[in-house]
Structure formats: structure tokens, C-alpha cells
């Protein structure tokens, strides 16, 4: 696992940061000793803090889709007029039966342009191949891979059109190591969140922002969860969630399987 290198000390001191998105943005997978989650947001805020703390807000919530970010989270973020905004969202859309790439594109364009209009540096993510860390039956794996491909195409297009920074999780060093993932294999572990924060810090450094406290990949400050805790979480939370979301994806997976049996259209 390599440590991302930062450009020479930037000239811009970031003083405000907001995080928008879904459960990964919330920090699931990186529990705190006193309860709750830490995640990429606080880790990045610490990296950006110099002589004074960065004003930080996390308006994300679990289960959020791109439309939720536009209608619910964006107004909260704009009220803060942040210098930097991190956007991690889209996977919940890929798991739903009403997945619509063009609607996602319209929502993402609106969010990015609205934030940039108040002078915010916007950073997004493009997603990795979940099938490499989470085992799924063949049809479901192909269905999810197809959806993620369509989502990433939207994210690539919007990021390029608006010159938004984009962290490619597929190319992030160590992204496919099991230690980077929590027990559910859907959310990053503490190490995974540190890797995300480090990746975002590198993007900000490239844009001339100062990173006074580079992100360490040495885990500390979080709550270590034992095997029993992992099993309880998986049974109580993980499997029911996968069942609910999987039911939405199954019809699409079946259509892919049927098309495969039928062969290419003539």
C-alpha cells in the first residue's frame, strides 16, 4: 500500500468543508469509542486544519440517493457556503429498480454547478468494481457491474464538464485489499476511510490547497470491533439491508440473464 504524495505546500488555506452523500459519507465502517461514526469527513478536516480548525459539516445520511442530495442536502450545504465540498453518492441508485442514468446526470449537474456558483471546490468519486470485494451470484454481479458502469460514465462526464475533482476508487492504491473494507464489504473500514481522506487531500493539494496535517494510514482514535461485533452487525443490519436492496436489483439481473441466453439480436 503506497502513501499518496502531496504537491508542494499549497497557498490556499481551506477554512470550511462540507460532506454530502450516503452511508459512506456518513462514515459507516469507522465507529467511534463513544458511539457514532467518524469517516472520511473529519479525517480530511483534520488534514486541512492549520493554525485554526476547519469549519466542518456533514449533511449526508444513510440510504441517500442522488436526488436526495439535490433536494435535501444541497440547500443545507449552500447555507454554509463551503470552500470545499465532498460528494460520495450514487451506489444506492444502482441498487434500485427505477435506476435512471439521465435523471442522475441532471441531479449531479445541478448539485455541482450550484456549489461551484458560490465558489466551492467540488470533489466527487467514481466507483470501484464491488464484485472484487463482495461476492454475488453471476447475474447479480453482472447487473451491478452494468449499473456501476453507467453511473461512472455520468460521474466522468459531469466531472469533466465542470472541472470537478474526481477520486477514482478503482485506481486508489489498496482499494481492493480486504483490510480497506468493513465486515459488510460495502463500506470502508477505518483504514479505507483514511485512504479516501488521503486521496481527497491529494486532489486538493493539486488544486493549490494547503494540507498542513497529511492523512496517516495508521489507524488510531477509532473503536476496534471484534469478531462477535462483526457477526452481530452482519446479522442485524447487513443481511437485512442486502435483502431489501437485492430484491430491487433481481428483476434487472434476470433481464440480463435472459438476454444472455437468447444471444445477440439479429
From TrEMBL:
<dbReference type="InterPro" id="IPR053140">
    <property type="entry name" value="GDSL_Rv0518-like"/>
</dbReference>
<protein>
    <submittedName>
        <fullName>Anti-sigma factor antagonist</fullName>
    </submittedName>
</protein>
<dbReference type="InterPro" id="IPR013830">
    <property type="entry name" value="SGNH_hydro"/>
</dbReference>
<dbReference type="Pfam" id="PF13472">
    <property type="entry name" value="Lipase_GDSL_2"/>
</dbReference>
<feature type="domain" description="SGNH hydrolase-type esterase">
    <location>
        <begin position="19"/>
        <end position="194"/>
    </location>
</feature>
<dbReference type="InterPro" id="IPR036514">
    <property type="entry name" value="SGNH_hydro_sf"/>
</dbReference>
Amino acid at each position: 500500500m503506497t502513501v499518496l504524495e502531496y504537491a508542494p505546500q499549497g497557498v490556499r488555506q481551506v477554512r470550511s468543508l462540507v460532506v454530502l452523500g450516503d452511508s459512506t459519507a456518513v462514515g459507516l465502517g469507522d465507529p467511534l469509542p463513544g458511539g457514532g461514526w467518524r469517516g472520511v469527513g473529519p479525517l480530511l478536516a483534520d488534514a486541512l486544519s492549520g493554525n485554526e480548525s476547519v469549519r466542518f459539516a456533514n449533511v449526508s445520511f444513510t440510504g441517500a440517493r442522488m436526488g436526495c442530495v439535490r433536494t435535501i442536502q444541497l440547500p443545507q450545504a449552500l447555507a454554509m457556503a463551503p470552500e470545499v465540498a465532498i460528494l460520495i453518492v450514487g451506489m444506492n441508485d444502482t441498487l434500485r429498480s427505477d435506476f435512471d442514468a439521465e435523471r442522475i446526470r441532471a441531479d449531479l449537474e445541478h448539485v455541482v454547478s450550484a456549489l461551484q456558483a458560490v465558489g466551492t471546490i467540488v470533489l466527487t468519486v467514481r466507483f470501484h468494481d464491488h464484485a472484487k470485494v463482495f461476492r454475488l451470484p453471476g447475474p447479480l454481479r453482472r447487473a451491478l457491474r452494468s449499473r456501476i458502469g453507467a453511473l461512472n460514465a455520468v460521474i466522468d462526464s459531469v466531472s469533466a464538464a465542470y472541472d470537478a475533482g474526481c477520486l477514482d476508487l478503482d485506481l486508489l492504491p489498496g482499494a481492493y485489499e480486504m483490510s480497506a473494507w468493513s465486515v459488510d464489504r460495502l463500506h470502508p473500514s477505518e483504514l479505507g476511510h483514511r485512504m479516501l481522506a488521503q486521496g481527497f487531500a491529494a486532489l486538493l493539494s493539486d488544486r493549490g490547497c494547503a494540507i498542513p496535517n497529511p492523512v496517516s494510514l495508521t489507524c488510531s482514535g477509532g473503536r476496534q470491533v471484534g469478531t462477535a461485533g462483526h457477526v452481530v452487525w452482519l446479522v442485524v443490519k447487513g443481511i437485512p439491508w442486502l435483502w431489501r436492496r437485492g430484491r430491487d436489483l433481481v428483476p434487472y439481473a434476470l433481464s440480463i440473464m435472459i438476454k444472455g441466453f437468447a444471444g445477440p439480436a439479429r
